[in-house]
Each structure stands twice: as structure tokens, then as C-alpha cells.
From TrEMBL:
Classification via PANTHER family: (-)-GERMACRENE D SYNTHASE-LIKE ISOFORM X2 (PTHR31225:SF251), OS04G0344100 PROTEIN-RELATED (PTHR31225)
Domain (Terpene synthase metal-binding) ranges: 1-194
One of the Pfam families matching this protein, by short name: Terpene_synth_C
GO molecular function: magnesium ion binding; terpene synthase activity
Keywords assigned: Metal-binding
Gene3D superfamilies in the record: Farnesyl Diphosphate Synthase
GO terms classed as biological process: terpenoid biosynthetic process
Domain of life from the UniProt record: Eukaryota
Record carries keyword Lyase: no
Protein name: Terpene synthase metal-binding domain-containing protein
Length: 251
């Protein structure tokens, strides 16, 4: 869905696509002019229908509804960013982070990762995620800023919504990009501290749920530590995968 908003869709197409996501009904597919959007939309509905069927067998159908709502929220955030790009707008940092942490995809992954878990996950677990708890908010900040730092050059070349670097530069009048990156890296470090604090302190939320958020963040830390290892898989990424999965250190 990220690439649909970032690369392929026109503004008018994205407006219709976002509305279709909000309505979440197969009849909306006919209103999508682009074939690839229809294919994607149909695939998403099918996947969620299959999830609902599996959850119903376990009397947990309510779980899929939470995943749908998070998907809808993310689509709104993606469209908000697309509107900025369409209007040539560079928002302030506060407004940027409000949308960009929602569009980063981590909340979707964190929610979906709970769908197949056992009885340790209850309705209140999903309600808790929807409150944007501190540990999830810290994770989203880490992922968004790390992504922006390593991908800013590539995104500018292809034409993309303003990044945290652009927003900071405009808001505070700082022209030295490395100085901005240093500031953002400090925010990343502070967010790691927040996340670790939330993970270690006593809480009613079961640890396996918190572990999901922490581990998703660790994956992104590996991907974006040196470069954009997600878009441009190189030696660092290959060595990292080999170290973890092919030649792991003995226990």
C-alpha cells in the first residue's frame, strides 16, 4: 500500500482509493480506475475474509475488526502525506510526525502480529494498541526517523513527500543536513530509552505482546542501521541475515 501512495497513484486515484479503504466493501472496487488498485483492493479484502474465517473457528472474529480499523487509519495517514506532496507543502515537525508515525506501517504490523496468538491476547490488548501507548509510539518514532535518514537522497531523486529532514530544515532554518541528522539520531536514542523503560517496568500488559513491538523495532534497526537495507539489499544486510539465521553464534 505504501508504494501505491508514494509512487503509482495520481492524487485523484488516491482519493478514491482511500475512500474505498474506509468503506471496506467489494462494491467499491468498481470505483477504482486503476487496474492495479482493483487487484490490490480485492486481494486485501480476500486476505481479511480468510483471516475472519479462521478467527471465527476459534471464536475470535473480533480480532480482524481491529486490524481493519488500523489499516483504515494508515490509509488516511498515507493520503494526508500524498496531499502534502500534491500541494507542495512541507509541514512542521509536529504535524509531520503525527502523520508519518501512523504511515510507517508499524502499528499495522504490531496489530496483525497479535491475530494468531493464543488466549494471552484479549479484546483489551487491541484496545490498548489503539491508544498509541508509549512503547508503540517510541517504536514508531525510531522506525520513521531511521527510515527518513537513510532514504532521504533516494526519495528526493524520485519525488516524494517531505521527510523529517526537510521539515526540520524548514521549521528551524537549519541548512546543515548532518546537523539535522545528529538531532534526529538523538531522538532515536531517546525513543529507545522510552521503549526499554516501558518494556521493563511493571505492567498489566503481557510481556509476549510487548516483545512483538520490540522485535519489530529491532528488525528495522537492522535494516536501516547503515543504509536502506530494505530497498537496496547489500553486503551489510546479507551478512546480517547470515549471522542471525545461517551461521548463528552457538548458545
Amino acid at each position: 500500500m505504501d508504494d501505491i501512495y508514494d509512487t503509482f497513484g495520481t492524487f485523484e486515484e488516491l482519493e478514491l482509493f482511500t475512500e474505498a479503504i474506509q468503506r471496506w466493501h467489494v462494491n467499491c472496487m468498481d470505483g477504482l480506475s486503476a487496474d492495479y488498485m482493483q487487484i490490490f483492493y480485492h486481494a486485501v479484502l480476500n486476505v481479511f475474509n480468510e483471516i475472519e474465517e479462521e478467527m471465527m473457528k476459534e471464536e475470535r472474529a473480533y480480532r480482524a475488526n481491529y486490524a481493519k480499523e488500523v489499516w483504515k487509519t494508515s490509509a488516511k495517514a498515507y493520503f494526508g502525506e500524498a496531499k502534502w506532496f500534491h500541494d507542495g507543502c512541507i509541514p512542521n515537525m509536529e504535524e509531520y510526525m503525527r502523520f508519518a508515525t501512523a504511515s510507517v506501517g508499524n502499528t499495522i504490523l504490531s496489530t496483525i502480529s497479535l491475530l494468531g496468538m493464543g488466549d494471552i491476547v484479549i479484546k483489551e490488548s487491541f484496545e490498548w494498541l489503539l491508544t498509541d501507548p508509549k512503547i508503540l509510539r517510541a517504536s514508531n518514532i525510531i522506525i520513521r526517523l531511521m527510515d527518513d535518514i537513510v532514504s532521504t537522497k533516494f526519495e528526493k531523486e524520485r519525488g516524494h513527500v517531505a521527510s523529517a529532514i526537510d521539515c526540520y530544515m524548514k521549521q528551524y532554518g537549519v541548512s546543515d543536513e548532518q546537523q539535522i541528522i545528529d538531532v534526529l539520531n538523538k531522538q532515536i536514542v531517546d525513543s529507545w530509552k522510552d521503549m526499554n523503560e516501558e518494556f521493563l517496568r511493571p505492567t498489566s500488559m503481557p510481556k509476549p505482546i510487548l516483545v512483538r513491538i520490540v522485535n519489530l523495532t529491532r528488525v528495522v534497526d537492522l535494516l536501516y542501521k547503515k543504509d536502506d537495507g530494505y530497498k537496496h539489499v547489500g553486503k551489510v544486510m546479507k551478512d546480517g541475515v547470515a549471522c542471525y539465521f545461517i551461521d548463528p553464534a552457538p548458545p
